[in-house]
Amino acid sequence: MTELQGQAALVTGGGGGIGRAICRRLAAAGARIIITYSRDQGKARAAADALAGGDHLIIHAPVDDSEAQVRLAAAIAEKYGRLDILVNNAGISKAVPHADLAGLDDETIDQIFRVNWRGAFASIRALQPLLAEGAGGVVINITSIAGRTGVGSNVAYCASKAAMDSMTRSLARALAPRIRVLSVSPGWVNGEYAQRMPRALIAEQEDKTPLGRIAEADDVAEAVFAAVTHLRFSTGDIIPVDGGRPLG
After folding, report:
1. Which of 42, 46, 63, 205 has the smallest number of Cβ neighbours within 10 A?
2. CA distance 134 to 248
3. What band does 242 get if pLDDT is binned at 50, 70 and 90?
């Protein structure tokens, strides 16, 4: 498939499970992929080496370092002269029971919001000029149903994802018509985090999900691809990838 032939797509945190799947899907459609990483260069390199096509790039650019985002924008402009797709996928969390208020300390709260919300905003802010060129680009924020259900790894994580969805709506209005902004909002995803959880917990989630399973990373990647290539008259929307879990 060549729907994205010649386009440049940045996936923050592209070395992780969901990020790798998104990179694979966009590269398979012809896009040149930029993968950013914060700590693990090896994972980013392995993800890039496995992609279809060529002319891909990995670059160290932690999303919570605003100056690094400015340097990233300059590097993309120099190498590709364009940016068509930005996927804000980088994110962090930590398991803290919601009732354990003392367990959710200020440092953890600040770190979650610094990476999940401020990092996504900083990326958009730095890359807006590139995304606004030519026919215009699209931003996809990877959020979570935790942002609307309030059920997730901790209270701050849920709040950070709700904040990202709010940002999606605000910036969809502010950056239109040159840039579309959407959220792709998964439920449980069968990745590294889920695989660390007790099997009984995952089975419970599957039983409560109308479609009978939790998502795979490829389900999220397909939603990103559809948002970029098929939902061209959509902006400011929150696209669920949850198998109907809130209905269970």
Report:
1. 42
2. 44
3. very high
Q: How far apart are CA 81 and CA 76, in angstroms?
A: 7
| Residue that has been written with the tokens 């660390």 in this structure | 196
Active site residues: 157
Instruction: Write the CB contacts of 106 (distance below 8 Å, at least 6 apart in sequence).
Output: none
| Token representation of residue 36 | 């950013």
Residue 174 token pair: 């502010």
At 131 the pLDDT is 98
Do the beta carbons of residue 219 and residue 239 sit within 8 Å? Answer: no
Mapped onto helix, strand or coil, the DSSP state of residue 46 is: helix
Find how far residue 29's CA is from the centre of its chain. Answer: 18
What is the model's pLDDT at position 115?
A: 98
Which residues have CB under 8 Å from 227's CB, separation 6+? 138, 140, 182, 184, 234, 239
Q: Positive or negative CA dihedral for 169, 69, 241, 150?
A: negative
Whole-Å CA distances, 117 to 60, 65, 109, 163: 19, 12, 11, 7
Task: Give the domain ranges of the chain.
Answer: 8-237
For the whole model, what pTM was predicted? 0.96
How is domain 8-237 classified at the CATH fold level? Rossmann fold (3.40.50)
Question: What are the pLDDT digits (tens) for 181-213?
Answer: 999 999 999 987 778 878 998 999 999 999 999
Question: Which residue pairs, CB below 8 angstroms and at least 24 apart, start in 117-120?
Answer: 117/160, 117/163, 117/164, 117/167, 118/64, 119/12, 119/62, 119/63, 119/64, 119/88, 119/90, 120/12, 120/63, 120/88, 120/90, 120/164, 120/167
